[in-house]
Amino acid sequence: MPRDTSTNEDGNGEEDNDGQNQEDGIDGEVDDLQYAWEALDYARKIYDAHPGEDSDLKLAQVYLRTGDHKRFSGFYGQAIEEYKKCIELRTACLENNDRALAEAHYMIAITHVYNSGEEDSNCRSEKERALSHYKNALKVLQLGIKNSQHNDSEAFTTENFDADQSQRQDTIEELKE
Questions:
Q1: Cα-flanking dihedrals φ and ψ of residue 119, to 5°?
Q2: What distance in Å separates the CA atoms of residue 142 and residue 168, rounded to the nearest whole number?
Q3: Bigger pLDDT: 134 or 150?
C-alpha cells in the first residue's frame, strides 16, 4: 500500500499515521541529535574534500560540534578524540592566544571530568588530564590578555577591547577555581 506523505493537520509535513510514523520509532519523531549528526558528517566530508586555512577552521568547528554530540551521548572517549582533532586544526591555523583554542582545551577538560565518573575509567588519571587541559586553556587566555595589552590594535574599539578583556578575565578566574 502506498504511503501517505502529505502534510498533516499541523502543517509540518510529517506522516499522519495515528499520530506516529512507524519508521521513526515509538515517539514518531527522528531524534534531533541524529539530524545534527548527519549535518555535521556532511559538513566534515565537504571540508575534507576542499582543504585550506578557511575550510580547516570550519572543519575544526565541525570536530568541536561532533565532540559535543559524542559527549552528550555519553561517548566520552570518542568526544575527546574529536576535540583533539579540533585542537590540531586550530593550532595549525590560529595564533597561540586565540580564544577558540582555549575553548577546545576547555571542552576536552570537562569531558575528562565527565569520563572520570565512569566505571571503567581511571578517575585520578582522567582528572589529571582534565587539569592539564584547564591549564592549557588558562595559558591561552592569559597570553591573549598579555599580547593585547602590548598591541594597540585599531581593529578593536575601546568598548570592544574592554569587553573582550573582561570576558577573558572572568574566564581566567573561573579556570583558576
A1: -60, -40
A2: 8
A3: 134
Name, in order, each residue with C-beta under 8 angstroms of 19's C-beta and a sequence gap of 6 or more.
28
End-to-end CA distance of the chain: 63
Mean pLDDT of the chain: 78
C-alpha cell of 17?
499515521
Up-side HSE of residue 166: CA atoms within 13 Å toward CB? Answer: 6
Model confidence pLDDT, tens digit, residues 74-119: 999 999 999 999 999 999 999 999 999 999 999 999 999 999 888 8
pLDDT above 70 for 67: yes
8 A C-beta contact, residue 140 and residue 107? no
* Grid coordinates of 37: 549528526
Q: Are 82 and 93 in contact (CB under 8 A)?
A: no
